[in-house]
Amino acid sequence: MAYAASIGAVAVAILLALAGGFLAVSAFVVAGSTVQLGIVTAIISVVAIIYNNSRQQDREIKARQFSDKRAAYQKFFDFLFEMMGMQRSGGTLSDEQAIDRMQEIVKDLMIWGSAESINQYNLFIRASIDQSPDNPQKLFENVEALMRSFRKDLGHRDSTLPKLALTKLLLKADEHDKLNG
User: Fold this and answer.
1) Which of 16, 73, 98, 109 sits CB 3.0–4.6 Å from 150 for a disulfide?
2) pTM for this entry
């Protein structure tokens, strides 16, 4: 019984809306051109204000997200540079410390990373596990793809960067010839 009453109420509301719309259009058609122009101007103004407010809200959200994404990606880059520095100096990071740092990075990536960045991170991790120490090319390519996805997520356009340009920044100049790119 309540279901039938609610359907009846919805039907009445639809009919009233249609009747109101018909009356509004009829009144608009018979109104003078000055009144019509005023109504059209008012409607356009309201739509423009709503649109601008929506765009402003989107920009504010993206600005807040950019700051958090940047901080999350910065953790990865800090860890990467720390690991490379330790490798050059012969130092090591304990497995427990490395796992803790990677868990922090993964947590931030899950919250702030784009789908592309998450997918690239998963490929990077797989390549890191499966990599051959004799041929680091695949690992470098995956690091490059991951860094480019982070940069893309932050708004960079890297289309003019040559292949492996970011990875080469991590290497000494005399190590660049190790890369095929």
Assistant:
1) 73
2) 0.66
Neighbouring-strand partners of residue 135: 132
What is the C-alpha to C-alpha distance for residues 140 and 172, in angstroms, rounded to an integer?
14
Determine the Cα–Cα distance for residues 50 and 174; give it in Å rounded to an integer. 57
User: Nearest 5 degrees, angle CA 153-CA 154-CA 160?
Assistant: 85
Tokens of 5: 């009453």
The 3-state secondary structure of the chain, one letter per residue: CHHHHHHHHHHHHHHHHHHHHHHHHHHHHHCCHHHHHHHHHHHHHHHHHHHHHHHHHHHHHHHHHHHHHHHHHHHHHHHHHHHHHHHHHCCCCCHHHHHHHHHHHHHHHHHHCCHHHHHHHHHHHHHHHHCECCECHHHHHHHHHHHHHHHHHCCCCCCCCCCCHHHHHHCCHHHHHHCCC
CA-based nearest residue to 155, from 79, 77, 66, 90: 66
pLDDT of 151: 92
Q: Which residue has the tokens 């109104």?
A: 31
For the stretch 5-64, pLDDT in tens is 778 788 888 988 888 878 888 877 787 888 788 888 888 998 999 999 999 998 888 888
For residue 132, pLDDT beyond 70? no
Residues recorded for the chain: 181
